[in-house]
Each structure stands twice: as C-alpha cells, then as structure tokens.
Amino acid sequence: MTERQLAFVFDLNKCLGCQTCTISCKTLWTDQPGMEYMWWNIVNTMPGRGTPRDRDQMGGGFDAEGRAQAGVLPSAKDFGEAWDFNYDEVFYEGKGQSAHLHPRSPSANGKDEAPEWGPNWDEDQGAGDYPNSYYFYLPTICMHCTDPACLAACPRQAISKREEDGIVLIDEDRCDGYRFCMEACPYKRIYFNPDRFISQKCVMCFARLEQGVAPACVRQCPGRVRHFGYLDDEESDIFKLVKTWKVAIPLHPEFGTQPNVYYVPPLAPPRFDENGEIDEENPRIPMDYLRSLFGPAVDQSLATLKLEMEKTRQGEKSELTDILIAYKWQNMFIPFVEDPGELSRPAPKS
Amino acid sequence: MRVGRVDTRDEELLSPESTAWQEAAVNEVVLSPTPLELQPTDYIRVSRNGRPYGAVSSMRVSALHNGDSVFFHLVWQDDSEDRAIKDINQFVDGAAVMFPIVEDAPLIGMGIQGKPVNVWMWRADWERPKNVAAEGMGTTQRRDDPALSSAVRHADGNWDLIVGRSLEERDAPPGTIALAPGAASKIGFAVWQGSEQERAGLKAFSPAWQDLELDA
Amino acid sequence: MTEAGLLLHALAEKKGGGSESYGSWEDLYRGKWTWDRVVKGTCNRADCIAACSLDLFVKDGIVWREEQNAIYDQTNEAVPDFNPRGCQKGICYSDLMYDASRIKYPLRRVGERGSGKWERISWDEALTEISDKVLDVCKEDGPESIIYDFGTTNIDFGPGTPAEQQLTRLIGTTSLDEWAGVGDLPMGAIQTWGLFNADGTSDDWFNADTILVWLGNPVYTRVPDVHFMFEARYKGAEVVTIAPDYNATVVHSDLWVNPRVGTDAALALAMCNVIVEEGLQKDRYVQEQTDLPFLVREDAGRFLRQSDIAKDGKDDVFYVWDLATKSLQEAPGTMGQPDASLDLGDLDPAMEGDFEVELLDGRKVTVRPAFLALKKRLDEYTPERAAEITGVAASTIRRLARRVAESPATLIFCSWGACKHYHMDLVQRSIILLLALTGNTGKRGAGMRIGAWWNMSLSYDKAGVGALAAAGAPAERPKVRDLENLMKTLMKANSSISPTMPFLYKHDKGYAKLVDTPGYHDPDLKRPISEYMQEAFDKDWMPVYPRDGKSPRVFLYTGMNPLRRWPAPDAIRENLWANFELIVTWDFRMSSSGMYSDIILPAAGWHEKSGVKFTQSYVPYICVGEQAVEPLYESKNEFDIMAKLAATLERRAKEREEAPYKDVFGNEHDPTDIARLWSLDGEFGEGDAEKALDVQFELSDPVGDATWAEAAEKGAVRVTSTGGYGPITAITNEVEEGETLYPFAWFVRDKESWPTLTGRQQFYIDHPWFLEAGEELPTHKEAPPAGGDYPLRMTGGHTRWSIHAIWRSNRTLLRLQRGEPVMYISTQDAAARGLDDHDLALVHNDVGGFKVRVKLAPSVQPGQVVMYHAWEPYQFEQWSGQQAVNPSPLKPLHLVGDYVQLSYRFALAQPSNISRAMTVELTKVE
C-alpha cells in the first residue's frame, strides 16, 4: 500500500459507449507516431471479446497465493491495428466508382487486406437470444493496481508506483521494451511503441494532476460516468462508493492485483418470459456472467443499488443516488477541479 | 581465447569474407540457457517454466585485433532471421560479448553491485551495437559508443556477426573494458533468439568466463 | 496518432529534436500538455442537435486538441448541471480539419462527374465561371432555375448562413427547404399542434417521473444531454425505451418494450384504450386542450361548423354541447373566434352523447363529440388486439398505460426518429393523444420532446426585418396563431423557398416514377398517387420553383451532400443531377456529392472561422466559436466566399452589361448592383464576418445585452429569453432564471389557442383527404412495402459516430468502428441466409442494391435490419450507398395545404423523405 491512492469509480449505468474518453486520451497522449494503434482508454461492449481480443483469457496477474501467472503477449491485430485508408485513390486519382474508401491492414505490406478485428469491433453486438438480448459498456484504463503485476514482472525496475498517490508509471528512460509487463498485466492495458521501443500506458494524466486538473477521460466524459479522487479520503465520493456503500467494485478481483478502478455494475431492464410477458424474477444479464467479471461482490452491490433506487422511487432521499447523480459535476473529481482552459502553459524552451 | 594480431585494416576486418577471418583460429563456445531460477522476476520464472529458451547450444568464435581495434567474429545457427519486429509481440535476434571490469565480477547475473561488467551488445534491428555497463540484472546502462562497430549477414541458416571496438580508451563510455595488445581479460557470450521471444535474461549464454588474451 | 499530433510531431522534428530535448521522460509528458493559447470554439457549422462550447488548445499554429469548456451553471440546486457538454466527434474535429478529406484548393472537374479527375484553379477563375453561368441563367430562365441548398448538414447561425441567404435572396434563387428532405419533419405534431419545434432545456428531463424513449436513441444522438435521463432514474424516475431492437438506450432503461417495426401507433392507441376504459383520463384537460368535445356530424363525418347552421356562418367556428346549460355552444378560441383563448369559463363540454341540430336547409342531423368517435376507434385497439399487432404483451401495455396515467409527469423523448416512416404522422398523433388524455403536454418534466431553437437573429441587417417580437406577458405578446398565419401569407407572397421532396418529384422523372409506384403506398388511397400530386400542385399547396415548364439548371449547395441524403440517388443522378449545367459546392471536406460536382470551393474549417452554433434549446446557452487559426490552404469562410462571389457577380454583370431581370414574383434584380446590396451599402465586405456577428448579437433577444466579443471570450452566454416566436422557435414558454424550461406553457398554462383550425390539440382532422384515407383520427396502419415484396424491413437511426456524413470518413473514428459501413442483422435472419459476421451481403429490392458487411447482433429484432445513418456512398463498392434501396414514397396526405395547420411554410407541413422500413432482402456475396 502506498501512502495515498488515487482511484476511479466508473458508473456503468451512465456509460454511453460514446468513446469520448477514448478520444480525449488519444488526442492528448497517443497522437504521436508509433502510437497509432494505442487506446490507453477503451470502452468495450460486453459480453464481448474486449481489447485486446479475448483479453480475459490472456492470463497474467496473480493466483490466490500471490504467485505470478503467465500471460500472453498480444499482437497488434489482437489490439486492433490502426488501419490505413485510400483517400487519395478515391478522391483524386481519377478512378471513379471503381475505387471506394475502405480500410487496409497496415501490416499487409501494401496488399489490400481487409481488417478482421479492431478495438471496438464487437460494438453493440452483445449476447443472449432476442428478445432476451443484452449488453452494456465497460470502459477500461490502466487500473493503477495496489499490487501491480506489471511492476513485479519488469526485470529492469522500470515501473514504479508513486508513494504520494499510487499512480503506476513506466519510466520511459529505463524501459527496454522487454514487454514482460504487457504479458503480466491481466487487464491488458499496456501497449508497445515500436518506434520508441518502449511500453506505454495510461499515466493518469499526472501532468494535469500536478496542476489540479482531473484526468482528461474523467473531465471530458459527457455521460458523467467517472468519479475520481483519493480512496483514503473519507469525504470523497470514491471512498463512499467503494468503502461505505460498497457499490463500486473491482473488475476481475481474482486477478489479484487490487485494481484502483472500481465499477458500479450494470442494471438491465427485465427479460421476457416465453409468453413475451415481463419476467421480473430472472435477471436479463445472467448473474453468473456478472460474477465472472466482478466476482461475488456483484450480488451485494446490485442489491444495494436497487434498494436505494427503490427508496427514491418512493420519494425518499438516498446519499448513494445523490452521489451517482452528481448534481454538481465538479464534485465528481474533488480536489482536481481546476479548469485547464484557464491555465497558461507555454511549452518550455527547448 | 587468443586474439590474434593481424595487419589488416578495420574496414576489412568488418567483412566476414575477409581472408583474415578465414585464417583465424575458431573457438567452439558451448552455450546453454540462462538458469530459470536466476531470472530476475517471479513473472519471468513462472511464465518460462516449461517453455524452453536458450536453445542455441554453441557458437563459433574467432577474435582478431590490429593494434587499433579488436573484433570478435561470432557464428551461430538460427534458421529464423529476425531482423525487425513486424508485430508488437515479436522480438529480434541479438548477441553480446561481455567482459568483467573487475576480476571477480560474476558472469551469471551480469555482474553485481560494485563488480561491474561491460557488454558489447548487438541487436538485429539496431544500426550500431551498443555499449552496456551493468552491475547486476536490471541495472544495465546502455550507451551509444561511436567506437563500437559491427557487420552482420545471415546466410545458410547462420548469423555471421562481427562486433568490434577501437582499443582507444579516450571518450569511452564509463564502464568500458580497457583492452590493449598483450593484455588479458575474460570474455562471455550470449545469444537471443527473437523467434522464441527471448529478451533480457532469457537467452543462451556461455556459463563461465573464458580467458581472453590479446597478442602483443 | 491524430492528424494534429502528426503535424506537431513533424514541426518538432523540423525544429530539431523538439520534445526530445526535455530532461526526464516525465518532463516529456509535462511538455506535451502545453499550448500557446486557448480559444473558445464549437462545431459551428455542424447540423447537430447539441451546442457545446469547446476549449481549443492551439500550439505552433495548429489546433492540437479540444476539451469541453465546462462553464454551464446549474439551473437550480434540485437539478444536475449541464457540464461537460461535448462528444467524441466534437473533440476530434481537430483531427478531421487536418485529415485527407480536407479540400485545400478550388477544384474544377476535368473528367466525367464522379470521375475523380480534377484540376486546381484559382478563386477568381472559379467565381468567374460560376458568375457567368448564374448570369446566363437569370437572363434566360429567371433566377428560380438556380437552386440553392443551404443545408442542413453544413449550416451555422451566423455569419455564414445569413451571408449565403443574403446573396441568394438578392440573386432570387430557389431555396430548398430541406427540413423534410432530411426526414426530420414530424407531420403528426404539425397536424395536431400546428407546430413542432417546441422543447425546453434538457435539465427539465430530470423533472420527469416517467420517461418514455420512443422512436429515438438518445444514447447515440444526444450524447451531451442524455445523462439527465439516467440521473432522473437515480432520482426515482422510470425510464422506458420503446424500440424494436435492444439499442444503446435500452441498456440503461428500467423497462424495454419491443414492438414490431412500425407498429408504434397501435401500441400507443392501446395504451389510450386502457386509459379511457379505466377512466384514467384527465377530463378537464381534455375538455379544454383538445378538440375531442367538438361536435361531429354523423352524416358527413365533419365537424359541425357555424356555416352549417347559420347564414354567413364561418367555417372555423365549432361547437360543443354544454352540460351546464344543456345547449349548443360555440367553442372558444377556434380559428374563427376573435379571442385566441381556450378558457372554457363555465362551459362544461359533453364528452359523450348524441345531439340533434338543425342545418341551414332545415335538415336535422345527429352530432356527437369527437371523443365518441375516438372511443370507437380505440375499441379496435384493445391490449389483446394490440398485442397481436405489436407483439407486445397485453399485460405490458396495461402496466405501461397505467404508469403513464398515474405518473405525476410523463415525458416522451421522441426525437426525429418517427419522422422517417411513411405513417409517422399516425404514430405521433397517437403518442400525443396519450399525453393529452393524461394531461402531460405543457407541463414541467412532461410532454413529447423533439427539439427547439433559441431565436437568434439570422440577419445582420439592422434595417431589415429583425426577429419577430419577443415574448412578453400573455396580454402583450402576439398570438402564435396570428404569427403562423402571417408566415403563411409571407411565404405565398414572396418566397421561392421550395419543399424539397415535392421539388424532387416535380423536377426528377426518375424519382417521380418511384413515388408513383402504386404498391409502395397505403392501399387505402383510392386514386393514383400522381393524381394527389397533381392536385397539390394545381392548388399550389406545394409551391415548387422553378415554374412554368422551366428546369433547374444551376445547383449551389453548402456541402449538405444531397447524393448521400436524397432517395434513390442512382435515379436522381441520371435525371435532375444530369440536367444541372453547373453544380457548385463549398465545403471543408470531400463528400460523395462533392465528387459529383463541377466546382468545389474550399471552405474554412470550423476552428478557422468565427460563428454561432445551432442554438439548441437543450442547453440554455448560445455557444459560439472564435477563429483559432488562419483558414488552411486556400480555404475561406462562407462569409468571405459570399463577399467574393457577390463582387465577382457584379464585376461580370458590369462587364457583360447585364440588364436587370425579374423573378417569378415580379421583383427586379439588378446584377450590376448586387455587391453593393449584399454589402449593405459597403458596410460589410470580405473579412467582416465578426462585424456581422456584432450586429447579429445586437439584434438577438436570447443573448440579452451580451455582445459577440463577450460571447467569444467565454465561449457561451446564458440565454435570457427564448427570443420571439418563429418557425423553429415554438418553445412557447418564457425563460425564467432558476427554472428549467418546458414547452407549451402559453397554450396550457395561459390557455392561448394552439395554431390549429380548432385552436386546440386537434386529434380529429376532418379534411376530405384524411376522411378518404380513414385517418381523420389516429389509427394504426402497416408500413406499405416500399421497395417491393421482400421479407426484411430496413430501419436505421442516427449514428453515434457522425453527424450526418461529416465524421463518417474520419480515420480516427473509423478505427473505432469497423472501418467501413456495416448493417446490423439479427442472428436468426443471418443464419437463414448463410451469413456470418462481417460477411459481405448484397442488400437489394426493386429500387436498387448496395453491398455492405453484416454485423450479427442478438439485439436486432428478427425481420429488421439496421443501417445507421449517413455513410458516404463512396464508402461502398461502386459508390452505391444505403439510399440506393430507398424509393421514399411521399405520403399524399402530407401534401394538403388548405387546412390551417396543414399549409406549407418553411420547415412545416410538407412530405418527408421516408427513409425507414423499406422492404429489402439480403444475399450473401461470395
């Protein structure tokens, strides 16, 4: 445990799957060559294969005894390549309707190879049989784990966890591009930059935090999904959602890394019975599926959430739902409430 | 291992076809996988348990100097030529020669705190070899070194690598071995097979120092 | 990697190391998050139903990235605030503006249209060629043969669009009214209310107790606003989504109701049935606010009118049976009553009963309240019967009906989704009926919400007609019905604005042939479609220009991409399009239509010019964007393009010694004076865009005393007033500080007459065409098999990923999709056709076909295939896009133009582009 720990709560019942978080991160940090295919933040439709594909089956993390678990090193195609497009051919090369704009795999060496996977390939597909279909959105970033498997795996001690806030960072000067961290991370949120031959991942916008500004993905989320703050601050939303109400729970706790991104698990409308009538008894999203993602705590979390929502239906107040509503947006990320538009940050002289 | 003295220019010694190399003595160096239990992190030990590495079992090494520079000519079998990564889960081939900076610097573990080693490392995707100083696993400091040079070809399922360095000590990065005509030192070797995802401590190496003598 | 990121990287490399020169790797990150300036921007010409202020971070002359400018104040403590408005699209405009679709220079086609063969020409060359053609046509055929299409894809609320309209008005062009061309015209609302652009602020959604998302998918389409719904849910509201597919909004709903495609009217009417059967309706509201107590003649099926029973009686005075006095009484507030008030006073209108009246000729006829006719209609929609039609269980219908009736405030988020179906009007009328029976229209946190606009002045001409008078106290403000009548008169007298779909019908033989296909229409129509069309033209219900056998010859459009949007583009390309002698677009990006144009003018990107975003009422702020960087390459903002075009027109007219010409209304246009007139006597020229904004702000009520400069500094200013009533500002309520805004208070709270024949929410339309079609009352009709006899219905919806086609070709966003168009299909229907995920399929019907990859989804209703909006045709093989199967059969009833609310004026009362629920089949492409 570090002295302090910054943590996130993502409320899946407000997530729109719009990927504004994803773009906010892309334009801020991964807009450089070598980072084309990187999405430090991604939102996946679940049930789905995730990013990289089948990430939940890729191993890593620790077993119940704390022993490291072998993991798979994903390929760029697993993450989803950054496809090229034939703009000029379509617009300016005089080919008329014989050429249409389409993606091409960048690894196909100029061959016109159609992509077969992408970071959001199974968007809005989900599972179940109509009309008992279901899906929901699951945003993921580096979990800034209390016991980071990446840190433990690195033979160069290039990964550290900051004492003052628990941010897990890869020292890009020390990193040698060995990628054991990528194998070991059970959430598969580390990418490899082939141009710089280093591994890279979410840095929790530490440069913003230093100026009192919340991370881009938090501050730019139009669904108002992301609560952010110190897990050890008993006044924080984070503390209340995680510790007091125990509604926000970690993803895959069995990975053993003690992640610091917590989720309010998804509700869903009731399913239909064989006569097409509303079936309130059996949940639309099978509980076993949710347990496979969030562990056994998901039952209690959902029960608490439903109970509090029932209270508000009856006109009573609920501290829990008031926090989730976030009447005042800035309260979602206290104390990082500075407005970046108000800051002056000229580039340092080189 | 004897480093014969020849009267051949650097440029020529950087060619595997050079007659000087054809006449040089060949040393058969036996390689073996680095020990699993000595890998630096639990993750590496667990993930490589039952997944062999370090399969290159030998290397033919010749060594020559011309008074100005010393060159090592390394030949080892590797059917897959991994010069550049085409995907992020790929690794490139590599090789290294290593010298102790102090006499009892351990080979296994690449030195230890206070007992550094010096490595001249070649990787198939680099333009130039790099000069590496280490005092134990995970401590390597890698530097560009204009005095280091290399030439390589891959033919008939073999890597054929020449790596060499000026004997001049001036401007050498800190932790560089000082070699001179007539001097003696020790040397070790390592090979990384990119196709087997070998990197860092996952490699084949010569488990013990070999004596190194430069002809005067 | 983003385009802006790459540019900055290249600049850094050029400078020699750039970012490499920092000390530690951490400094690299700190150094990356730096900028030279922050400018307030917005998506200022996007046709997006949101308005979001953005901070633009400018670095080395590049707009590096956007972040939401989250400055909106909470309306009051009891509702969440609006922050941070924006979406993934708006925050990567900086990527789009620099990407490969950007138009850099004026281009002239050198091969066939659509060949992709271009030559770069100068601005002067381009504008001279355009001017000469315009002058030729004005002289030869009159200015109406020049067609100007201003949107809606690429439109602002100043200064570009006003500058364009100023010039095209001076030329005298025909202007296309694209509202319905987009398929965004809710005819059912117009039939019932006489207007539709009524909504409030989105934080008012939070006040709802029950929210029905019906024919919309706000999780895709209202990214900055939809949180209010899900926050309302946490507050205790029930969110119900009614949609055939398990869409992204269903994900966050308390209940999903999944009717078969196109059966929503039956569902709504069954809910009405339950409410009436169980006596749950709000009687006084129905008596006062609806025409349901109005007496209808049994013999004719028409309302009893004053002209039926009194000499010189009026056609727009109607009767109720007063239970208090047991006598026939004139209903107050109808169009024929001088006083536009619905106040019933002591009247107690009967809702039931047979009454006898004597007509002028002495005949006696039975009359009875329209409510009785409605009850009879509702008898056809018992929950059990509706269950058979819709597939929704009768128990669900009952439960939902009771919830709506008993909930203190029921809000229906309706969006524009219903507007794209053939019988959309029946659906909307049924939904509005449900809300009227339960007293939900005109109430805080309640009613059907579609969208509305703050009435910013769209003119920078101080001397010209400014905004209509601002709202005031009920006694002082002009009456809505009078304003609507005034607009109709003005339209008829002096406007060559033409409703797009009738325009296409009249001027495109290929499209007309499709519309005339009998099988694509409602079988209840007794006559051939062409007869209805001809009657509408003969009676001038649908004013379409040019007239008198003249043809459209020049097409000037603002990048709104007609060949992407219009139905059956293959047919249109061969007819109307082929007949245009000159096609010109100004746009910042290459669209499919741009590819088929003759001249393309490079418009400045949004961050390269100043402007006002759509003034959507969802957010009580006017959002503006200030120019952050110089226009890229040779691009120019629209204001300057118009200034240059006006100057070129005048120069060429003088050189050619052109005489004044007349338009169809007899107005004279002098092309040798056009630049002076456009410039308002030299007041405005190139470079004066911001000066025009100064004036616009001065002329605009919603911004109060705020100036353009203040707005540009902050990015957004809070509205203090809705602005006057106008065609797209029918909010009909006042902005009150500290209160959320809901629509229709003037009619419900203040009891002002609605702008309809009956002065009420009118559910009984006794127009002969409606009686003929059996649609005098809301009813359910199956969507006709437009496209032919094929088993699947192709539906759609606006996409999460683009506003129209603007972002469809953007590389960064495509990488988060499948990189190319996809069609969602149910797993069952896919299996039956041997289709696996991502297989290529031919989608075809009698109209045409296109190839697309399929995405198998259990969320899709069997029988339905879903094609989300606005892929560029050039993203499909042979550029054959999703409209290729769309015959867009115009519903003849929407042509009616002689029935008060059913009378064409801009953005109202016209047939729509019907782009949903056409019949198709899918065949796997091997």
What is this structure's SSE topology?
The complex is a heterotrimer of chains A (about 350), B (about 220) and C (about 950).
Chain A: E1 6-11, H1 20-28, E2 42-46, H2 76-79, E3 84-85, H3 87-92, E4 103-104, E5 136-140, H4 149-153, E6 159-161, E7 168-170, H5 180-184, E8 191-193, E9 198-200, H6 206-209, H7 216-219, E10 226-230, H8 237-244, E11 249-250, E12 261-264, E13 271-272, E14 278-279, H9 287-294, H10 297-313, H11 319-325
Parallel strand pairs in A: 1-12
Antiparallel strand pairs in A: 1-10, 2-5, 3-4, 6-7, 8-9, 11-12, 13-14
Chain B: E1 2-5, H1 10-13, H2 19-23, E2 27-30, E3 32-33, H3 42-48, E4 58-65, E5 69-77, E6 94-100, E7 117-123, E8 130-134, E9 141-143, E10 148-155, E11 158-166, E12 184-192, E13 204-205, E14 210-214
Parallel strand pairs in B: 1-4, 1-14
Antiparallel strand pairs in B: 2-4, 3-13, 4-5, 5-11, 6-7, 6-12, 7-8, 8-9, 10-11, 12-13, 12-14
Chain C: H1 3-15, H2 25-32, E1 37-41, E2 54-59, E3 62-68, H3 93-96, E4 107-109, E5 118-120, H4 123-141, E6 146-149, H5 160-171, E7 174-177, H6 187-193, E8 210-214, H7 218-221, H8 227-235, E9 238-242, E10 255-257, H9 264-277, H10 283-289, E11 295-297, H11 306-309, E12 319-322, E13 327-330, E14 355-358, E15 364-369, H12 370-379, H13 383-390, H14 394-406, E16 410-413, H15 424-437, E17 447-449, H16 480-494, E18 497-499, H17 500-507, H18 509-515, H19 529-538, E19 554-557, H20 562-565, H21 569-574, H22 576-579, E20 582-587, H23 592-595, E21 599-602, E22 611-612, E23 621-625, H24 638-656, E24 661-662, E25 668-669, H25 674-678, H26 689-699, H27 708-714, E26 716-718, H28 745-748, H29 768-773, E27 792-797, H30 811-814, E28 822-825, H31 827-832, E29 840-844, E30 849-856, E31 864-868, E32 918-924
Parallel strand pairs in C: 6-7, 6-19, 7-18, 8-9, 8-16, 9-10, 16-17, 19-20, 20-21, 27-31, 28-30
Antiparallel strand pairs in C: 1-2, 2-3, 4-5, 4-21, 11-15, 12-13, 14-15, 22-23, 23-26, 24-25, 27-32, 28-31, 29-30, 29-32
Helix pairs in contact in C: 4-24, 5-24, 6-15, 9-13, 9-14, 9-15, 13-14, 17-18
Output the helix-strand order of chain B: EHHEEHEEEEEEEEEEE
| Largest protein-protein interface | A-C, 109 and 129 residues
CATH-derived architecture of the domain at 792-924 in chain C = Beta Barrel
Percent range for β-strand residues of chain C: 15-25%
> How many domains, in number, for the residues of chain B?
1
The total count of helices of chain C amounts to 31
Describe the sheet with the most strands of chain C: 8 strands, mixed
Average pLDDT number of chain B: 95
Low-confidence regions of chain B: none
- Which percent bin holds the helix content of chain B? under 10%
